Task: inverse folding
């Protein structure tokens, strides 16, 4: 089949149902298949043929049942008819929670059809001679079709369901999947699609080799870019809808590719150039977010799967090779050498060290394993899948109760309600794909790289790049004396390499990547990008600067003293640094203070004798903050969510519209039909739409939500957000609320009141979260839902602590949250400069809704200890007698003693907090409540001490 016909077929598939279907069913006499989409297909010169029916058949069977017609075969049974405009209810695809949109019947069908038709007609792109360009039109439909075509539709349009009776997945998800099936079937000689899984590595090791915040960002961002280079092979050949997950719609890197594809159309060009990634001129530009995971799954033609995977491998390795070459030539140019000269030994090293990078693993599973004739059949699939199970009698989905129900027809009053076809075996095929992919990783070939000279400063594994091979034998003293490629670069470009550092090929790429990528973005948007790297020292100082910004207007004496200090120390000659975005908004209100605030970190970095720090302490009444926080948040049991298990799946009936479930006629059918009853109670299996929903939720979280929380709501810098993972720096006073808010918005839960009070009016008005959905900046976003959980490791460290050490402790904290905390937990560790560690590991929330939760109790305890009328002795004296108690003291004694101490050092009102704390540890930490309470006091006291305005007299620091 010609490539042109492929795009024609996919476009026809994407137009098999109208977007407005949910709102016109039962309200429009024309019928949804003969209205707007019929006229659009006619205008585009495309037909809806048998291949498209088969694609729709597969996609629909995987996601939802058929519904029975009346005995005349012309009308659907009355109990199946839902007027969505009258009863617009969405069901969360991962939890089954109902989300009522309110009445929509004020939107008239004729108006809606006209708006929709005009919208899609405006997205048609024509080529030479005025004929439709099917490929560009499909790409345009895929990207912009879900954008609201009228103000009154707002966020409703992007969430319209594919089926009003089972409103658990959007029309856009259904159109995408049908188009993906149609493309894969059409391009295969036997009309057979295949699931293809591709992953790239290594991940943790590559990111972990870091000595600065810039290194961390570069490692994670570069891996995301490598993943996109692989996905792009599929997108260019079969369209972005062919990638099942991650869902690529709205991903900035994908938008750049689409912009290049579609910018010849002036309307498409205008749409792209109105986006944030085109307009923003700093590294808050969404293109700087590492928002793609290192694995993807696509629907491709079965006879091309191997070739596509091999092309992906060649493409990503060529990308890295070219990137390495460009990076090395930039380095040589920077130190004044001829970058066109290939003779230096570093080019030989570069080739050897980049060989085989990245690691690429792939697996493919054809649908032919699930087909006999045109029917679903497991004759081939079962024995192959069973070879991956220890117990061949329990082969996942194929030996589940669900398959016992789903493999048979279900009839209601003589009409077909459910008939299995090969699409329904998606869960088993995906299970096989997952297991084959895991086997491919475990069997990867390994070739040892021989390295004889001194190794890279960051990993000790690969030789550092050198102009002359003999230099690899030089010791540190000789390198410094005679000069190397890296000593010369350190003298020229400190942002690329620090004195004494010598880097290998991969780390050299990471150091140059920020500059190269900024250049790419500048070439796209036609403007210079100002990239800001927030240092750990600046993050620490941001707490002090934030408090100064709050009082500077009411206390002009402080600003006067700071201005005087600035003149004496010549602060304005220092380099201005980047501040966290939320803080930058505050300090920019006062231009005089802003100039000082942005230069204090640089000045203090250069303050070797501590003179400036002492003067600043005298002005502030306390030493500047020296600690910062890091957050590593990770979704729990993501493998189970993607593959589906008993705990993550929901019954089929929970996906149905409440009108049907509550219908008297339907209840009678259930009572007399055992097959239907079993079907409704069985768990909803993995499906393409479920995978799309997971991907969409993770996309929204990584692209929009994580940055909103870390950088808009709090004083932080997002380093990485890919799917369910978040790595971020945050000021120490914002650490606890930031990590907790991330956790709640991950699941679309209401944010606790104690966090809401810490947000300013600007940010608090921008969002609302409940029932598994998040309304952010006027757009309704799907989240992972209230059943989804996430664990978090958090550390507080001194800004001079080695970043590599802090990262190791951060990962250990996350591991402790998942293991010792039992998942859905956090583990917060404080590492003191003088030595010693204190920590709290606990659940985010307890099952009893009346209970106070650990984060809230910590926050209340911190607030109490930070008050000027409370002595820190409340914590110290409590710790003294707590250490003398047995591990399981009498709960009443614990309450009375703690309340006495709080009341003595604070106020009578603080006794209530003492009761809450004592009750919490007694009820939920039965093994060692005294020890847990001691840890909570120590952590809260440290964090409160670091965030108060001034030290209290007579209290040890």
Result:
């Amino acid at each position: 089949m010609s490539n042109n016909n492929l795009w024609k077929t996919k476009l026809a598939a994407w137009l098999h149902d109208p977007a407005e279907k949910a709102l016109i069913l039962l309200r429009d006499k024309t019928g949804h298949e003969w209205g707007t989409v019929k006229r659009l297909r006619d205008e585009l010169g495309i037909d809806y043929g048998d291949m498209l029916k088969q694609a729709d058949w597969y996609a629909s069977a995987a996601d939802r049942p058929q519904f029975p017609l009346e005995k005349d075969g012309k009308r659907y049974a009355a109990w199946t008819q839902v007027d969505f405009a009258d009863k617009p209810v969405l069901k969360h695809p991962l939890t089954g929670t109902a989300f009522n949109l309110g009445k929509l019947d004020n939107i008239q069908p004729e108006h809606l059809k006209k708006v929709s038709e005009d919208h899609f007609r405006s997205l048609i792109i024509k080529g030479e001679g005025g004929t439709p360009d099917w490929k560009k039109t499909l790409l345009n439909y895929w990207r912009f079709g879900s954008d609201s075509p009228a103000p009154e539709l707002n966020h409703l349009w992007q969430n319209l369901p594919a089926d009003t009776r089972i409103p658990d997945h959007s029309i856009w998800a259904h159109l995408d999947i049908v188009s993906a099936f149609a493309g894969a079937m059409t391009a295969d000689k036997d009309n057979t699609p295949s699931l293809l899984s591709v992953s790239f590595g290594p991940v943790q090791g590559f990111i972990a080799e870091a000595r600065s915040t810039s290194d961390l960002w570069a490692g994670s961002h570069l891996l995301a870019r490598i993943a996109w280079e692989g996905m792009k092979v599929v997108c260019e050949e079969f369209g972005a809808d062919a990638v099942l997950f991650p869902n690529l719609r709205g991903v900035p890197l994908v938008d750049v590719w689409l912009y290049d594809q579609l910018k010849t159309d002036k309307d498409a060009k205008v749409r792209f150039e109105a986006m944030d990634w085109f307009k923003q001129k700093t590294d808050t530009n969404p293109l700087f977010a590492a928002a793609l995971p290192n694995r993807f799954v696509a629907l491709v033609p079965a006879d091309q799967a191997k070739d596509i995977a091999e092309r992906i491998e060649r493409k990503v390795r060529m990308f890295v090779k070219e990137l390495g070459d460009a990076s090395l030539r930039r380095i040589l140019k920077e130190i004044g050498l001829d970058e066109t000269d290939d003779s230096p030994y570093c080019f030989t090293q570069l080739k050897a060290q980049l060989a085989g990078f990245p690691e690429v693993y792939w697996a493919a599973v054809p649908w032919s394993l699930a087909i006999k004739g045109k029917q679903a059949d497991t004759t081939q699939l079962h024995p192959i899948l069973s070879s991956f199970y220890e117990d061949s009698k329990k082969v996942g989905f194929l030996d589940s109760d669900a398959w016992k129900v789903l493999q048979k027809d279900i009839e209601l009053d003589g009409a077909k309600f459910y008939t299995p076809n090969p699409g329904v075996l998606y869960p088993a095929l995906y299970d096989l794909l997952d297991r084959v992919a895991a086997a491919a990783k475990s069997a990867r070939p390994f070739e040892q790289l021989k390295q004889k000279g001194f190794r890279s400063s960051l990993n000790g594994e690969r030789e550092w790049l050198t102009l002359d091979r003999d230099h690899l034998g030089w010791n540190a003293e000789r390198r410094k004396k005679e000069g190397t490629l890296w000593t010369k670069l350190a003298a020229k470009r400190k942002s690329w390499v620090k004195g004494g550092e010598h880097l290998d090929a991969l780390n050299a790429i990471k150091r140059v990547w920020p500059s190269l990528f900024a250049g790419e973005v500048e070439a796209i948007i036609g403007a210079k990008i100002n990239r800001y790297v927030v240092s750990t020292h600046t993050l620490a100082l941001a707490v002090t600067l934030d408090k100064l910004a709050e009082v500077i207007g009411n206390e002009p004496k402080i600003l006067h003293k700071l201005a005087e200090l600035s003149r004496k120390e010549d602060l304005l000659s220092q380099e201005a640094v980047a501040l966290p975005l939320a803080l930058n908004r505050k300090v920019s209100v006062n231009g005089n203070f802003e100039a000082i605030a942005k230069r204090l970190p640089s000045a203090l970095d250069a303050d070797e004798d501590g003179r400036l720090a002492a003067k600043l302490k005298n002005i502030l009444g306390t030493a500047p903050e020296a600690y910062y926080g890091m957050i590593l948040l990770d979704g729990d049991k993501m493998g189970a969510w993607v593959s589906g298990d008993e705990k993550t799946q929901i019954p089929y009936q929970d996906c149905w519209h409440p009108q049907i479930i509550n219908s008297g006629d339907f209840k009678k059918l259930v009572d007399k039909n055992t097959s239907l009853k079993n079907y409704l109670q069985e768990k909803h299996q993995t499906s393409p739409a479920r995978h799309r929903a997971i991907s969409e939720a993770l996309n929204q979280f990584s692209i929009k939500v994580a940055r909103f929380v870390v950088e808009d709501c709090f004083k932080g810098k997002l380093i990485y957000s890919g799917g369910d993972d978040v790595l971020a720096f945050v000021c120490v006073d914002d650490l606890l609320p930031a990590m907790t808010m991330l956790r709640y918005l991950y699941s679309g839960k209401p944010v606790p009141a104690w966090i809401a009070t810490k947000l300013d009016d600007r940010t608090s008005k921008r969002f609302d979260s409940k029932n598994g959905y998040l309304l952010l900046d006027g757009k309704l976003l799907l989240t992972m839902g209230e059943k989804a959980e996430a664990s978090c490791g958090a550390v507080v460290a001194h800004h001079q602590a080695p970043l590599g050490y802090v990262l190791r402790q951060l990962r250990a904290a996350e591991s402790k949250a998942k293991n010792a905390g039992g998942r859905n937990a956090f583990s917060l560790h404080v590492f003191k400069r003088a030595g010693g560690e204190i920590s709290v590991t606990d659940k985010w929330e307890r099952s009893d809704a009346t209970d106070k939760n650990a984060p809230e109790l910590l926050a209340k305890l911190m607030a109490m200890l930070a008050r000027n009328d409370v002595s820190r002795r409340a914590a110290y004296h409590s710790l003294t007698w707590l250490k003398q108690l047995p591990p399981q003291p009498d709960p009443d004694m614990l309450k009375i003693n703690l309340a006495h101490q709080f009341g003595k050092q604070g106020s009578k009102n603080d006794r209530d907090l003492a009761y809450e704390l004592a009750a919490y540890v007694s009820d939920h930490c039965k093994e060692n409540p005294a020890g847990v309470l001691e840890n909570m006091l120590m952590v809260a006291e440290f964090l409160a001490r670091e965030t108060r305005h001034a030290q209290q007299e007579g209290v040890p620091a």
Remarks:
- The chain has five domains: 1-185+375-420, 193-362+449-525, 536-623, 626-649+684-844, 846-957.
